Amino acid sequence: MAAAITLRSSIVPSKQTTFDVSGYHTEVVVNKFEDHLFIIATQFMKLGTVIQVTRDTVTEEYQENVSLFSYKSSFGQR
What InterPro entries does the database record attribute to this sequence (predicted)? Predict the structure, then answer.
């Protein structure tokens, strides 16, 4: 796996890395906003499906905190 590269020219802090997944060149970019992350993973050098993942914390009676994740497709097909 290649080392992550921090992109400093952007207002939004970003990190980018590349690696092979089953022999396919894969690029991942993470953009950090104040209240969320925008993660792009591509093997085709273009944006495909956009999925929004939300984490909620649920307090259980016998457990302290449990993370519950939900997702919805914002763009494209899933």
Answer: Proteasome_assmbl_chp_3 (IPR018788), Psm_Assembly_Chaperone (IPR053720)
Sign of the alpha-carbon torsion through 16, 21, 26, 32: negative
The b/e string for 43-68 (b: 16+ C-beta within 10 A; e otherwise) is: eeeeeeeeeeeeeeeeeeeeeeeeee
At 21, give phi and psi (nearest 5°): -120, 110
The DSSP annotation for 38-70 comes to: EEEEESSSS---EEEEEEEEE--SSSS-EEEEE
Q: Give the number of residues written for the chain.
A: 78
Radius of gyration of the chain (CA): 16
Q: Write down the pTM of the prediction.
A: 0.61
Under 8 Å between Cβ of 57 and 66: yes
**One-letter identity of residue 42:** T
Dig out the tokens for 48 from the structure: 């495909």
Ranges of the chain whose pLDDT falls below 70: 1-10, 60, 63, 77-78
